[in-house]
Amino acid sequence: MSSIHIKHRHCLEHSETRDRVDRVARHLNRKYKVKYTWEGDHLRSKHKGSFAHVHLADGYIEMKIQLGLFAPLRGQIERAIRKNLHSVIGDERGAPSKITLHKKL
Asked: What's the predicted TM-score (pTM) here?
């Protein structure tokens, strides 16, 4: 099964990181019916045979995604995730003040 593994470093406080990740999860739930749950600092989601596990740690987010039926779109999905991580979470140099999701998410 095709998968994506991303470890993204950032400079946000833990509570702000969780809030931003939760806002994206709610958006995906509304738009695509992606189901998700929080277990402490871990977000788990599933959608049409794909599964994602997002771990929030101090200074970084780690994502592991099993693509299932979406395996043929692996490259596009990974590029969209990385682009949106930068526009939602930022990086080690700073974070955007406003969350902007790109259309390809």
From this structure: 0.88
